[in-house]
Write a structure and sequence with these properties.
The complex is a heterodimer of chains A (about 280) and B (about 130). Chain A is α/β, with parallel strands linked by helices. Chain A folds into two domains: about 60 residues, Orthogonal Bundle (Chemotaxis Receptor Methyltransferase Cher, domain 1), CATH 1.10.155; about 200 residues, Vaccinia Virus protein VP39 (Rossmann fold, 3-Layer(aba) Sandwich), CATH 3.40.50.150. Chain A is about 40% helix and about 20% strand. Chain A has eleven helices and ten strands. Chain A has a five-stranded parallel β-sheet with strand order 6-2-1-7-8. Chain A has a three-stranded antiparallel β-sheet with strand order 3-5-4. The longest helix of chain A is centred in the first third of the chain and has 17 residues. The termini of chain A are far apart. In chain B, helix 2 packs parallel to helix 3. The N and C termini of chain B lie close together (about 5 Å). The chains are: A alpha/beta (about 280), B alpha/beta (about 130). Chains A and B meet through helix 8 and helix 9 of A and helix 4, strand 5 and helix 5 of B. Bound molecules: S-adenosylmethionine (SAM). The site of S-adenosylmethionine has 20 residues of chain A, from loops.
Chain lengths: ~280, ~130
């Protein structure tokens, strides 16, 4: 059973309009396999009937999830910008007062090709409150392929054009042929390793800040709940969790509370839940 | 909100123009630096942003940036270079001359929109230019 030409055409046009990603003919199998979990979650047993319903209802949430499902490694520097503003203006200055040891540990838990952890690294450099601190960023992903690119720290013109203010680019990158390479002092702050969020995290230590952005969206409710619970166990009780713009803890794992930070919000372990993690 | 597009390529002006119009900008165009200055001088309502190519006949983009920065009455115009010039020292030179942002060609529509967002240039729908 494979996806019909009609359904494929609809998905291709929609994804192109929303993400600039082009799914050429021949990618039917990819579309089928990426959309099947979403189809199942919504009570369909084929992608074709799922897409037929989508064409009829144009349910905005589902339309967005289709794009998400097909852009799984999509990322950019300072993605959505607001979280990084919150990190610089709110989260880091607050943590700075609570950490006499002048060191912080950050986890980028689905780091894709590295733009996210490097954006975190750049942000810490631009935050006077933590200037001179020891900042360790652990960046993990399921995919070895994206991790290899992340470790290399080299990005194309198109990639740096997205989301990176030019002053930041010339400050933190060097030209390398036709690409741009992250400066060694920033690269040294980030340690990349493979980690599957569905499995036990292993001995990762304790984090002050966790970025878990644009990945929960791929999991079913039970998995989301389980991941959020285990993230709590590796977080400092007064730590901060960043989720993607379309993700939340509400109704998933209510041990978290949403607190405003900058123009967006972050999540913290609720006061009455903190003792359990100590 | 207005935008001025300065590029000697008509095709490029059209591409950038379409993206900006879709974003809610009213656009004006010029084919080189000198024409851009003439357009600015003729405008009652100054543009919020100028997208400026580097290599143009008559007066190039870097000279234009320098000329605009020398006029205090134009200090509120945000200047963004949109060019194939991608060497690091070029970028640094443009910034030193007074450009705020720098977009390297080729770029996707998203990239231009993201730069505008970074600069806080978001026209209010239905608002007066
Ligand atoms: C859309 S990207 C998000 C990247 C980045 N966090 C951001 O917000 O820009 C999702 C990433 O999650 C990774 N991923 C998917 N399933 C995963 C899992 N079970 N464990 C760890 N990473 C996973 C994918 O490899 C991909 O790189």
């Amino acid at each position: 059973m494979s996806i019909g030409a009609d359904a494929f055409g609809f998905v291709r046009d929609h994804v192109r309009a929303e993400s600039a990603i082009v799914l050429e003919t021949g990618k039917e199998y990819l579309v089928e396999s990426r959309l099947l979990p979403l189809a199942r979650q919504t009570g369909h047993d084929s992608v074709d009937t799922f897409v037929a319903e989508l064409r009829r209802t144009r349910n905005p949430a589902l339309m967005r999830q289709v794009v998400e499902a097909l852009t799984t490694n999509e990322t950019s520097f300072f993605r959505d910008s607001d979280p990084f503003v919150a990190l610089r203006q709110d989260v880091l200055p607050t943590l700075a007062k609570e950490r006499p040891g002048r060191s912080l540990r950050v986890w980028a838990a689905a780091c894709s090709s590295g733009q996210e952890p490097y954006s975190i690294a750049m942000t810490t450099r631009d935050t006077p409150e933590v200037a001179g601190w020891k900042i360790d960023i652990v960046a993990t992903d399921l995919s070895e392929e994206v991790l290899a690119k992340a470790r290399k720290g080299e990005y194309s013109q198109l990639e740096v054009n997205r989301g990176l203010p030019v002053t930041t680019l010339v400050k933190h990158f060097q030209r390398s042929g036709i690409n741009w390479r992250i400066n060694p002092d920033l690269a040294a702050m980030v340690q990349f390793r493979q980690l599957n969020l569905m499995r036990p995290f292993g001995p990762v230590g304790r984090f002050d800040v966790v970025f878990l952005r644009n990945v929960l969206i791929y999991f079913d409710l039970a998995t989301k709940r389980d991941i959020l619970r285990r993230v709590r166990q590796v977080m400092a009780p007064d730590g901060y969790l960043f989720l993607g713009a379309a993700e939340m803890t509400m109704g998933v794992d209510d041990a978290w509370e949403r607190v405003p930070a900058g123009r967006s919000s972050v999540y913290r372990i609720r006061e009455d839940q903190r003792s359990c993690v100590r | 909100m207005r935008a001025l597009i300065v590029d000697d390529s008509r095709a490029m002006r059209r591409i950038v123009g379409r993206i900006l119009t879709e974003r809610g900008f009213e656009t004006a165009e010029a084919a080189d630096g000198q024409e851009a200055i003439a357009v600015l001088e003729s405008m009652d309502d100054l543009p919020a942003v100028a997208c400026i190519d580097w290599n143009m006949p008559v007066m190039d983009g870097l000279e234009l940036v320098t000329a605009i920065r020398a006029r205090p009455e134009w200090r509120d115009i945000t200047l963004m270079m949109v060019t194939t010039e991608s060497e690091q020292d070029r970028i640094v030179r443009a910034l030193a001359a007074g450009a705020h942002e720098y977009l390297i060609k080729p770029f996707t529509p998203d990239a231009l929109v993201e730069k505008l967002d970074l600069l806080g240039l978001v026209p209010t729908p239905g608002g007066v230019a």
